[in-house]
Amino acid sequence: MTKPAYPWTATGWHDQALAAPSPYYDQRPAGVTVDLLVVHAISLPPEQFGSGEVPRFFTGSLDFDRHPYYEQLRNLRVSTHFFIERDGRLWQHVSVWDRAWHAGVSSWQGRTACNDYSVGIELEGSESTRFLPEQYQRLATLAGDLQRLFPAINPERMVGHADIAPGRKWDPGPGFSWDYFTEVYAHGRDETSPET
């Protein structure tokens, strides 16, 4: 395999991300084309930001006794490729060459098992909060980096978790403005605040 251009390493890690490898991943099916970007939202504990708990959850090091909510997470084995904090800080938990366990039971345009052919990106947020310009900017930059690596990922193939698991998942929710994200992605600027 030819080494991809900066910011990607040959092993599928982003040079600008904080690497915190997850044990929860496996290999993508042979010959699969990565052509979908899935946007998620998460906060741990719910509605609390900046706790540092989300990366611990994705790396299997969360102390489930620290908060009552965590009991329902105890037996889950979940990961994502990337996590973007409220201030735009970028984490990477799984190589983009590998399959992260982020989508669960899912389907897009009649094609099931979205984990096989997608990249998952979690934003720190909740169903009741708006996302911040720093997150949109980081997400847009990362989406551009991913499109250079996987040309089949285009704006029409950037979706929310709720789009691929309707009725089961809500994220990224009403606080995420697809119009604002599209504008930032298309123009690479961050001049106004998102309106939802």
Structure description:
With 196 residues, the protein is an alpha/beta fold. Helices cover 19% and strands 18% of the residues. It has helices at residues 53-58, 133-149, 161-164, 178-187; strands at residues 18-19, 25-27, 36-42, 82-84, 90-92, 98-100, 107-108, 111-112, 118-124, 158-160. The strands form three sheets. A six-stranded mixed β-sheet has the order 1-5-4-9-3-10. Strands 2-6 form a two-stranded antiparallel ribbon. Helix 2 packs across helix 4 (178-187). It starts with 17 loop residues before the first strand and ends in a 9-residue tail after the last helix. Mean pLDDT is 94; it is low at 189-193.
Give a brief description.
This is 1,6-anhydro-N-acetylmuramyl-L-alanine amidase AmpD. The protein is of the alpha/beta class.
> Could you list the spans in which at least 5 consecutive residues all have pLDDT below 50?
189-193
Could you give a short account of the major beta sheet? 6 strands, mixed
**Which sequence of SSEs, written as H and E, runs from N to C?**
EEEHEEEEEEHEHH
> What is the terminal-to-terminal distance?
42 Å
Strand order of the largest sheet: 1-5-4-9-3-10
Strand-residue proportion: 15-25%
Arithmetic mean of pLDDT: 94
Radius of gyration over C-alpha positions, nearest whole angstrom: 16 Å
**Which structural class best describes the helix and strand composition?**
alpha/beta
Q: Tell how many strands the DSSP assignment holds.
A: 10
| Helix fraction by DSSP (H/I, runs of at least 4) | 10-25%
What's the helix count? Answer: 4
> Which geometry do the CA atoms define?
globular
